[in-house]
Amino acid sequence: MSVNLPTHFVQQYSTNIALLLQQKGSKLRNAVMTGNHVGKQASPVDQFGSIEMQSVTSRFAPMGRVDASADRRWVFPSDYDLPQLIDDFDKLKMITDPSSAYVQNAVMAAGRQFDKLLCAAFTGTAKTGEAGGTSTIFTAANEVDVATGGANSKLNVAKIKAVKELMMANHIDFDTEEAYIGITAADHASLLNEIQVISSDFNGGMPVLQNGMVTSFLGFRFIHCEQIEASLAGTNEVTLPVWVKSGMYLGLWNDIENSVSKRNDLQGEPWQLYTKMSSGATRLEEDKVYAIESYRA
To answer: How far is the CA of 217 from the CAs of 75, 130, 166, 262, 295, in angstroms?
Structure first.
């Protein structure tokens, strides 16, 4: 056996995972800002408050100053890995096949982990301050109540209109920002009952459904992600995240790294496919992330 075979396998394995991650891994990663980091924590953005022009009331008066409030948002990494064992060399060759269970499992596991991090960060406590010592909670006023548009209701037109009103009131520019709503299967089914969503009469005569899926409405793009159902479930409701791309961040300390090695320490000396990642997520600005409460029985 050539000593170069494991190198070839790990390169092909890594290539397969990278390509598939772009297609079917994380549902949310492409809808947020990303960046690469080193160290125990990172600050992806400095936050500056708004300022206003000052009236000039006299000529040649001493010049004052206007200082914008400044803060810093932090993101912290968490480490994850996925070791898979293969008991013979013939099965090892399967990892060069993009459709093999080993590759598919690694892709889906990595994608789910990115989505879990982002789901937690949508409404979780963010870290702010000079060194990340200040806890910043989700803004309660940015949430649309579960009863909007009807008692015990899932996602509906009234809730979408309500969250858009909140965002516009907070100066979100829908002409320049990419706006998203994360939905589950239950909420997509609810949207299919909304005539204003599915009828082209209410959407400028343009086709609304693509392959049976509602993809956009009122300036929002819908992202179907079942991880939301698990990560953002409360008592009789699920929190649907609403955000603009510039308001959420995924920090990558170690994106996806793979290795293939022989485990001489185990009986049968199996081959090990090892995938690891290190990543963290946070909100970047409070008024760029919102929530819609969706009823669950």
So the answer is: 32, 39, 16, 52, 20
